[in-house]
Hints:
The structure holds 2 protein chains of 2 kinds.
Chain A (H helix, E strand, L loop, with lengths): L9 E4 L18 E2 L2 E2 H8 L3 E5 H16 L5 E6 L6 H10 L2 E4 L2 H9 L7 E3 L6 H9 L3 E4 L2 H13 L5 E8 L13 E2 L4 H10 L4 E7 L10 H21 L5 E3 L17 H4 L3 H15 L8 E4 L3 H4 L3 E12 L5 E5 L16 E3 L7 E7 L8 E9 L6 E4 L6 H4 L10 E4 L5 E5 L4 H5 L14
Parallel strand pairs in A: 4-20, 5-6, 5-13, 6-7, 7-8, 8-9, 9-10, 9-11, 11-12, 12-13, 15-17
Antiparallel strand pairs in A: 2-3, 4-14, 14-15, 14-19, 16-19, 17-18, 20-21
Chain B lengths: L1 E2 L4 E2 L4 E4 L4 E5 L1 H11 L4 H11 L4 H17 L3 E2 L2
Antiparallel strand pairs in B: 1-5, 2-3, 3-4
The complex binds pyridoxal-5'-phosphate.
Amino acid sequence: MKPTYESPIITKLNAGMMNKFGSRTEYTPVKSIDNVAVADLMDEYGSPLFVISEKTIRQTYQKALKAFKMRYPKVQFAWSYKTNYLDAVCQVFHQEGSWAEVVSGFEYQKALRNGVPGNLIIFNGPDKSAEDLKMAVENRSLIHIDHFDELYMLIEIMEEMENTKARVAIRVNMDTGVYPQWDRFGFNYDNGQAWNAIVKIIAQEKLQLEGLHCHIGTYMLTANAYAVAARKMCELALSYANTTGERVKYLDMGGGFCSSNTLKGSYLQGADIIPTFDDYAKAITSTILQFGFRPDELPLLILETGRALIDEAGYLLGTVLATKRLADGRRATVLDTGVNIMFTSFWYNHRISPAQDFSQHAEETALFGPLCMNIDSLRESVILPIMKKGDRIVVHEVGAYNMTQWMQFITLRPNIVMIDTKGDVHLIRKQETVNTIVDCEVVPEHLAKHNL
Amino acid sequence: MKIRKNIAISENGFIFNPMTGDSFSVNETGAFILQKLKDDESEETILQNLMDEYDLDTYTAERDLNDFLSMLKGHQLTTNE
Ligand SMILES: Cc1ncc(COP(=O)(O)O)c(C=O)c1O
């Protein structure tokens, strides 16, 4: 039998490079996900293909919940719809006990369709229409007011609504020692704006301040920022209690915990530097517990954790379309997974593994997507085994934001499957067809024909 | 295309260029081609050798050989005399 062939390569050995294969984590084949063969998945559902592990979602959720529950008596997660609002994914979180956290009328409708009771929907964001607000008031949802224009709009709406009160909170932004400071959303704590908003709400018969909300940023590398934020939230809650004799029922600390993805430009692997759920939980709960609330008056702690709960459960399977040599001698590998469906490749150096066996030889390569656009670059440089047309790859930790922020650009969006906890595979979003797109288009009569 | 005379090639695919101080590693196929180049074989012969040695179509053999030769050239391991 003839020896198996592998394309010839020559690799320069750099004196400074300790391991000629670079980071070995990118260098183990991933042939199955939750015991389902990657090859089978792709044979049946095509390429590219998103795969979601229900088991991983549930395990991650339980890990996060435990970190908080073992330190604080009243904890509630609200699933951040924007992070991944596929119905099947939301339902897993709702089955686990998560409320819904939405930031648009569209997401709100989705939560209702998923059977979430209106009073367990948190309505965030700067864009709520008058209709959205009315609907939220009627459903007894928690309206988190973002700016004074919204506050005044809600006051006007309530004038027309009889025998009902709106359940509200304000979103608070603040200096937590982390830059950039997210001061675009909500009312500023440090300059007194947040307190002014609270005073305005107190004066309104038909507005009931139920809680306080903040979301200090996303991918927060320091847990201490949450301690600072929690302290300022407690201060506001105390001022409110001193002024009105009433207590706010909850403090909502938003999302922002890191997933173990590696940020672009970071030399360290994400997993080695990010705080754990325990670190975040310690920072938040010890601050609230030590603040001095009476034990029976401790506010409910709400968390809107997004990426840290779902990133790891999502995989993207793809195929090598071509390999080529760039002008400067570097190898380039063209994949069918572009930035159109992998939005987070703008932020992260996603870990990518081959899905089949390979020899011990590796080569530095740039990874590009299939789009006819210069921006379609997934990794500028990664050490991977030698791959050829038709080989398959697995992109890790793509569960957050990709399946919501993806773009319908040049190609259509692919199938998404979920592997349930028994190992059965379910199609949870069908790949788009030309009709998905053109059904929304309308061609004026005079443009219906031409004579080419 | 020929390999420079002073380039050292070890059996396990380790290459040293005393002119620049650079060292390189090659995989099995790379070592196979380098050996042929050192034996002064022509590109046509090497192409044929590759197809005989491995189960390989002309298209892949040609593409990979050209790619490899251009890499050798890029690393200044060849002469054109
Ligand atoms: C108000 C709010 N809550 C929660 C989240 C989820 O954030 P993350 O995915 O960083 O946990 C976001 C995301 O930006 C948000 O804006």
